[in-house]
Structure formats: C-alpha cells, structure tokens
Amino acid sequence: MRLEVDIASKTFRSAAGEQHDVINGVAFALDAGEVGVLVGPSGCGKSTMLRILGGLDHDFQGRVSRPVDARIGFVFQEPRLLPWRSVEENVRLAAPRADDKKLSSLFEILELEAHRNHFPGELSLGLARRVALARAFAVEPELLILDEPLASLDIALANRLRDQIAMLMDGRSVITLLVTHDVDDAVRLGDRLILLSPRPARLLADLPIRTPRSARGEAETAAIKSEIMRWINGHPPRQSAS
Ligand SMILES: Nc1ncnc2c1ncn2[C@@H]1O[C@H](COP(=O)(O)OP(=O)(O)OP(=O)(O)O)[C@@H](O)[C@H]1O
C-alpha cells in the first residue's frame, strides 16, 4: 500500500482568462503507516495538492497513484458538518458500519463524549474540528488527509489536539497527509516532511524523520526544525539532521 505522487503542473485559469501556475513539480511517495507533512507558505498550493491527492481534482499534469478504491478520510480546513444532524449522527452517517466500541473510543480520545447529542451550531471551532476528525477516523481510512487540523486554535488547545491526533495515528496502518505551515507541528507529527516553495509550489526537500514520534526528544525536534528553516530560507544544510 503506497501513495506515489508526481505532479508536474497545476494551473487555474481566472475568469479573465489569465493562467495562474499553482504547482510546478512536486514528487514524493508515502508508505502505509507513514505521516507525510506538507509544509509551505500560505497560498503556495497545499490545499490544491490535497484535493488532487484525494481524487477531488483531476485537472492537472502528472500522475498520482493510490491504492485502488482506497477509503479516504478527508478533514477540510473548515469542519463541513451537517448542521441539522447531531455530532454522533454526523459521524455515523459517514461510517455506517463503525461499531459502538470503536466510536466510543474515538469520542473518548477526542473528548467528544459529552457532545454526542449536540448540533454543529452549538460547537466551538475546536470541537467541530474534533467531530470532523472523528468522522474521518471512523471510516477506517486507508488514506487520511488533514488540511491544517490545528489552525486557528489557541496554543493549549492546539497542543492537546495535536497529541490526540498523534495518538489516533499511532498504530494505524494509514497513509496520512497533513498540511501545516507550523514547523513545530510538522516535526512533532510527521514521519516525512515535504517542504514546498512559495507558489507555484515545487519540492524544496523531502526529509524523512527516522526516530518514531513518541521517541523524539526536544534536542532532535529543535535540530530538525532548524534544518527546515535553513531549507525554507534558501540555505539548505549539506547534511540532513534527521
Ligand atoms: N478554484 C480556484 N480557482 C482559482 N484559483 C484558485 C482556486 N483554488 C485555489 N486557487 C489559487 O491557488 C493558489 C493556491 O491555493 P491553495 O488554497 O492551494 O494554497 P494553500 O497553500 O493551501 O494556502 P493556505 O496555506 O493559505 O491555506 C492560491 O493563489 C489560490 O488563490
């Protein structure tokens, strides 16, 4: 089970007919159980890439090969819940075959137990995000796509949710793609960092982190972060820190 990506180019055409190049050469591969983190500046084409990888956009030059008929869990930047359905119904509708025990465990890890019967309009952004995550994990995805799952949350909440996402990813044999522009989140969650240039996105570096997430100490995390910053600032290191 493997995701292979080779996007030569992706362009959008404006209403006035102008062509905007958004992706210009990004190739990488991910194996099952691996978390790939796309790191790049705002507007460089990360969400566009996720839509291509998730099979929602076929209008690009290149090739994406993913497991045939893969179940895909997609968490968009905005939670996209059905407003007239409860939290539990939102999750069950996406994953009708999920058993009660699995759902309870997901709700417990994501601290949603007390909110099963609430409606999306009653939830804070952080809670709605958790519901979107529960829904994505409940389908037992083979390919999991998370677009900025920690954006716009306060630091304490983002840290907690980051740990919960890590807990959910550990031990699952899922190909995961996560987008962030937070270098710290990238290093704490990823197994492979895919660094992108400003728009049009091209691959700056594909950095595997060999130490398992749970064993990464502060010193190693800091070293990898500084390596990333050197790439982003145009001074790539001669030797990989990972
Ligand atoms: N449907 C569309 N039509 C035209 N242009 C688009 C469309 N979708 C995205 N774009 C443009 O493509 C570029 C990349 O957008 P995208 O949302 O993929 O970037 P991003 O890296 O995810 O940004 P952010 O980090 O701010 O979420 C932007 O300039 C955006 O305006």
From TrEMBL:
Domain of life: Bacteria
Keywords of this entry: ATP-binding, Nucleotide-binding, Transport
PROSITE patterns cross-referenced by the UniProt entry: ABC_TRANSPORTER_2 (PS50893)
InterPro entries the record matches: AAA+_ATPase (IPR003593), ABC_transporter-like_ATP-bd (IPR003439), ABC_transporter_ATP-bind (IPR050166), P-loop_NTPase (IPR027417)
SMART domains: AAA
Domain ABC transporter: 3-223
Keyword Lyase: no
GO molecular function, a single term: ATP hydrolysis activity
Job description of the protein: Involved in beta-(1-->2)glucan export. Transmembrane domains (TMD) form a pore in the inner membrane and the ATP-binding domain (NBD) is responsible for energy generation.
Family recorded in the similarity comment: Belongs to the ABC transporter superfamily.
Protein name: ABC transporter ATP-binding protein
Protein source organism: Bradyrhizobium jicamae
